[in-house]
Specification:
- The structure is a single chain.
- The protein has 154 residues and is mainly alpha-helical.
- It has one domain.
- It contains six helices and no strands.
- It is elongated and about 90 Å long.
Length: 154
């Protein structure tokens, strides 16, 4: 009796694995905002970027952080500048919004994005700089210049 139950269990389990679930077949692929404008072209073909963008970003990070080499070819900021734009109402999606260029695919594949813990998730031209940041920059400059004139002692 035990062997029959196990055999039936394995057969049913195998069938469940082999037969695609209806919900998986009906899941739409994420939509990706394509860059617009004449002459706008990605650094690699679309299929290449879908499969290997994370490798390009990691290699770029290593060259920049570890070797001090800054190039724009696989720059995350360049990706954001081309692929993230305001919607019809002028709102720019943040990285954790469903509409954000990066989030749509990463959510679809259940991959967590950690890039935006440090990097901006919107193009630089849309980031509003407030006076508080300017005040902090002025304070930093004042402190550094005071240190330089005081021989390094604060």
């Amino acid at each position: 009796m035990n062997q029959r139950f196990l055999r039936l269990f394995f057969i049913l389990g195998g069938l469940m694995i082999l037969l695609p679930a209806k919900s998986m077949a009906d899941t739409p692929f994420p939509t990706i905002r394509e860059p617009e404008g004449e002459g706008v072209k990605c650094v690699q073909p679309e299929e290449e970027m879908r499969r290997n963008h994370m490798d390009y970003i990691l290699h770029q990070r290593d060259k920049t952080v570890h070797e001090g080499i800054r190039t724009e070819t696989y720059s995350l900021a360049k990706c954001i500048d081309c692929h993230v734009e305001p919607d019809e109402s002028g709102k720019i999606a943040k990285h954790d919004d469903k509409e954000h260029f990066c989030n749509s695919c990463h959510e679809y594949t259940s991959v967590q994005i950690d890039c935006f813990e440090c990097h901006a998730d919107r193009p630089q031209k849309y980031i509003k700089r407030d006076s508080k940041k300017n005040a902090l920059q002025q304070q930093l400059n004042k402190t550094l210049s005071a240190r330089d004139t005081d021989g390094g002692n604060l």
